[in-house]
Write a structure and sequence with these properties.
The complex is a heterodimer. Helices cover 56% and strands 19% of the residues of chain A. Chain A is of the alpha+beta class. The longest helix of chain A has 44 residues, at 266-309. Chain B is globular. Classes of the chains: A alpha+beta, B alpha/beta. Chains A and B meet through α1, α10, α11 and α13 of A and α2 and α3 of B.
Amino acid sequence: MIRPMLGEAWLAMGANRLRTALTMLGMVIGVAAVVIMLAIGQGAQYAVQQTIATMGSNLYIVLSGSFTTSGVRSGAAGGPTLSVADAEAMAELDGVAHTAPVHFGTRQLVYGAQNWNASVIGTTPAYLDARAWTVARGGAFGDSDVRSATRVALLGQTTAQNLFGEEDPVGKTLRIQQSPFIVVGVLAPKGQNLDGRDQDDTVIVPLSTAQRQVFGTPFVGSVRMIMVQADSAEAMPRVADRVESLLRQRHRLREGQPNDFFMRNLSAAAESEAATTRTMSILLGAIASISLLVGGIGIMNIMLVSVTERTREIGIRMAIGARQKDILSQFLLESVMISFAGCLLGLLIGLAVALGINAITGMVIVISGSAALIAFGVAATVGIFFGWYPARKAARLDPIEALRYQ
Amino acid sequence: MASEVIRVCGLGKSYVTAAGPFAALREVNLRVEAGDYLAIMGPSGSGKSTFMNLLGCLDTPTVGDYILVGDNVAHLDPDALARLRNRVLGFVFQGFNLLPRMSLRDNVALPLVYAGVDQDERRQRALQLLDKVGLARFADSLPSRISGGQQQRVAIARALINRPQLILADEPTGNLDSQTSEEIMRLFGELNAEGITIVLVTHEADIAAHARRQVRFLDGHLISDQLTAARA
């Protein structure tokens, strides 16, 4: 039963190609918009997840505050207001998983005839835990290295590539600021951060070593930044409050006095970027639903015209034995087929546009089977929903009236 | 004794119009035996079309009984009526009523689609019947490619495809010239000779003369029922 009916629906669609194509247009645009929306929306989701995954999750960065000398304000992390002791005290707070004091700057690295300027990070082993950063080759340094200020270094992938090329850096000695450092390990690749900066273009050394041998800080024990990781996303606001009150207490700030530090939520930055993209997705979603609605009404309209035009045909079919449900399914099948054809076309156009967006703007897109599934579900629903009324009208025609219709 | 194909008892049909109820058909009684060849005649408005629609299971009567091959169809639901139209009856119309977008073979096979016959058998039986009416060579053509007389022969092939017991023909020669009409009537004669019961509506006496029996309607009443005097 279904096979000859498919053939007939195909014939009916082919009988008036331009009209069928125009009828499909609404569906095409609607489905294309759905596909693009999902590709971009899921892409944004994916990008944020990736960023958070490489950055480490549930992180706060506490930066040392600014100070003012002769009217010149130093800006964030300008003054030595944070200390290693602050970091250790924060680690004791409830809901805090890791804290890592960080001192950083860009320095020249030298190995043999090669030199390379990279970001030097002086910190404690907890830094790697907070950022979920693993060591690909060799090993990490431990707390004892921090205590005794040993000259060991962990290289990021980019730095390792640039200084050592194909050579295995582990066990080799490189120089930072004239001081020799032994490479104990190479870190796993992280990729770009939110600003597009290469996170692998770095070298990590023990905090104490960095302060003494690399940066030469006048205030030993002071750091420019402390990384704080909360146990969970839910614990973050609580941790923020506790860290703030702890630091105010430790820095002896009176009521009304401004903080001498800044707190930044790294995940929030990623989230806000995702929110922008999501707004775009919602906009596309609105376009999609409107054009699907209009497309569906278009299908209904054309099917009503088609039923009227083919009244006599319906009469003939009834006279030779078509039951009401045969007529109903014939017209329903036709509207569903128009809807599906439009959907298929929309799917292809949507994919092409999504890939185009990816190629031109570099925006991350994710194309998933669920997008196609959703699109086809929508097509079937629209076809059946808007085809039902015309099909029922056809099925309920009086055969005598229909046969007499000119 | 031949079995009964049609028995109509006290059949009536009335419509509600703006001017009040209107009786299109009143107290009609008729029996048609298997293998009979009946012509229904009468002027417009005499009720013969209404009667044909009732015989064709396209409509149900207001009062009375209609027994078609042993079943009282007077009170059947639309699906059951559709089934009878498909399996027991074959229609031939004045305007041929072929579907213009389908090949002749598909047109002839269409009733089998609704009977749930599979594709191979449909095609084979359609070809057989096109051959019977002498048009097998046009099997893949569209109806618009052949003449009116040929289209009517295709329509007859379609009416025959489900091996009906009764063929209802409503002015089958009304759109044809006299020579083609003769050919179509000859075909009906042959089918009747094979044992198929035929009921024909016409207002032309020479067409009605092909039938064995002639029935006349006037103002909703069946007024005469007689054997054809001299067959041509």
